[in-house]
Amino acid sequence: MKIWSLIPEKKRRLVVLLVFMMLFASTLEVLTVGSVVPFVSLLADPSGAQVFKEYPLLLSLARTSGFEDPFEMATAFFIALVLFSGVARLLILRFQLRLAYAIGADLSAKIFENFLASPYELHALENSNELAATVTGRLNDVIHLMLNPMLSLTSSALISVFIISGMALIQPEVTISGGIFFGVVYLLMGALSSKVLGKRGESVSNNQGKILRYLREAHEGIRDIILGRKEAYFLDVYSRADYRLRMDRATINFFSQSPRYLVETLTLVALVVAAFSLLRTDGQSFSESTPLIASFALAFQKLLPNFQAIYANWALIKSGAVSLGAVTDSIESSSGLPVSSRIVSSPPLGDIHLWNVGYRYPGSNAPALWNINFTIPRGKRVGIVGSSGAGKSTLLDVIMGLIEPTTGYLAIGEESITSDNAPDWHAQISHVPQRIFLIDGTLQQNVAFFDSSSVIDRRRLNKAIEVAELSGLIASSSLGYGLHVGEGGAKLSGGQRQRVGIARAVYSDASVLVLDEATSALDFATEKKVIDNLVAIEKAPTMIFVTHNSEALKTCHIIYELEAGSIKWSGNWADFDSRSRATK
Fold it and tell me: Structure pTM?
């Protein structure tokens, strides 16, 4: 079964253990139902003469237990058995739920690991809402609508089979007839609801993704939504998707629970028919039939919730099939190295070489890059310019080893960069994009970027703060390095966010700094100071500036101009400045 293949090996052994625990609980349920006959018989005959004749084992038990009154012994035994059976089922339920959610945690971690390990191209092409919908919505559906219902269904089915088998040994005709009757009832209801449950389950999965998308879009674009007066539109599309989601879940719950009320009525009818059959067919008196009738009454009382649980869990499983498919695809789709295996061994060092590099995005007819040939000497500064759409971002992704060229190759020193050694190259790079990624934490946490406070290098941290001209911000706050930046840096200005990104790059002590319009939000004076500070770093790293800013380009040893995915021109700042003036 598909879901079994998703469960980790260690958890599979626990599932097998759980099944054996369920078998034990089912045995206790049969003993509880079976003990009703001698117990009720003792109610009618407290002396126990007839009962001990029919059940000699009880006589041996009475003699060894120390009870003088057989009725007291039967009462104590019956109560102990019922309590033990109830406690056992309660403990098994706790184990079952914890196991189901533990498996869910394993699957969630696996999905996120696959997301992190996927090639960069997939991250660039995929919708981020799909990851959120799979982890937060569909995975929960797999737990609540597939995994836990399957375990509950197994438990209920085992108990039902054991009870029916036990009752069949006592009265086979009535038991088999009742079993067939209730089986046909549930099969008919299942056939009628199967198609509806499948469609509603698919609708739930789709609307979960829509709701997450609307929430994220509204959060990220709230300024434009307010200024454009689009609040009503977002409220409308969100409300419709949320309403459909909840109505679909209501329908699923209705179909899973509604048979209970019909079967409760039929159970009472079946119990009366069974009593009538025992009295008329077997020719027994009422007092003789009472123990057996009581046993059937208890059996029906235990079977009814288990029959309902089997059907309800089947209905949930049916509605969760679409979510299971999405989770399975997320787990099986990874084509990258596992995160645990990405250990930097011998980092590639040296000049950066691009030889006949070309790149075509999947599904695109036109190449984004073609015939790129240049070398960036180690420790030098290079500028890359070009109009929007010229291929600058794609070229940076190739240089950083995030995407593999479709033609040609990238080499560091004498070592070609492939998907196998790309993680080693990534460890040597620090990237400062125009839009800085900031966590909802302190300034120190964002600069040190997930280094714990116990391992933060204070010297490097102070140096990074100075280079990025953030000393004034720290001095102006009573919290200092503990200044909280807010979600996405909401408490900082655009220029301050960029400087935090620059400080992070400097703190990383990487051998290559890639600055993609990294100072675009800074005022002229601050920008000049930051660039001068970067140039003055001891043991200067290789720096790649993607910018049209003259202050940054002045510091570059060579400048490359891209046009339509290829190198149009290259030269130093003086040549570039003269050329720019001539074209104005």
Answer: 0.66
